[in-house]
Amino acid sequence: MHPAPSRRLAALVGATGLLVTLGAGPALAATPTGTATSSPAAAGDAELQGEACPDDEGATVLVDPQGLAGGELATPTAGCALEAPDGLVALTEAGFTATESGPGFVCTIDAVPAPDQADCTNDGYWAYYYAPRDGEWTASEVGAADRVPEVGGVEAWSWTELSGDSLAGAPPRVEPAAVEALPVAGETDASAPDAPAVEDSVDESVPVTTIVVIAVLAVLLVLGIVVGGRRRRHQVEREMDERSSDGR
């Protein structure tokens, strides 16, 4: 059973108008109201990895642990959600695994934060953003389960540490346009070398027709030996019978 959100976080939710999406599935989101765009200082602080959706299909989902994580989520990572009926489904369809700390709160994404890094019920939360590819980040005014991602757009989840009485989200450290430099999901790398051709196991120096003719001749030779042996045996038996008749 997941622990409930702390009194501190709950108090901040009530005081700042945090919108909580309830009853929307196993992974639920909490996001502050209003809009926020990424600051100039945030851009370029981290390198984006992963893959993006085509610009006319699905939604690209970006997760930024803000330096909190290790392993595969050490830097902002993106994935493609071809099926994205809402923000929560898009998060999992893009290849991420989310858990909840209680109804309405995404606690971890791909096991981040780890228990020894931060407490998702007291130290911080995952802020939910969206943007067109050529635009700026905007903090969602509704929970992820109540928002339908735009086709070709970018969704983002950014870890935000609670500081004092502020619930202002921390925008991702990379701009939405950064997804343009990622490989597109489902497309093969044209620069990759072609696989070596499988050589024919038949020696091309010997024509197939020659092999067939030799095989047929071998079969005919065996049949000739067998038939000739039978005829000779029958002839010997016939001669013996004739000699026996003359002796009588």
Strand portion: 15-25%
Give the low-confidence spans.
Answer: 1-7, 10-44
Under the CATH scheme, the architecture of the largest domain is: Beta Complex
Distance between the termini: 113 Å
Q: Give the domain tally.
A: 2
Q: H/E series, N to C?
A: HEEEEEHEEEEEH
Query: Order of strands in the sheet with the most strands?
Result: 3-5-4-10-8-9
Main sheet characteristics: 6 strands, mixed
Q: Could you say which overall geometry the principal axes of the C-alpha atoms support? A: rod-shaped
Structure description:
With 248 residues, the chain is α+β, with helices and mostly antiparallel strands. The chain folds into two domains: 7-181, Ferric Hydroxamate Uptake Protein, Chain A, domain 1, CATH 2.170.130.30; 206-248. The chain has three helices and ten strands, in the order αβββββαβββββα. The protein has helices at residues 7-16, 87-93, 208-247, and strands at 19-20, 30-31, 49-50, 59-64, 77-81, 98-102, 105-109, 124-131, 138-139, 154-161. It is rod-shaped. The protein starts with 6 loop residues before the first helix and ends with a helix. The model is unreliable at 1-7 and 10-44 (pLDDT under 50).
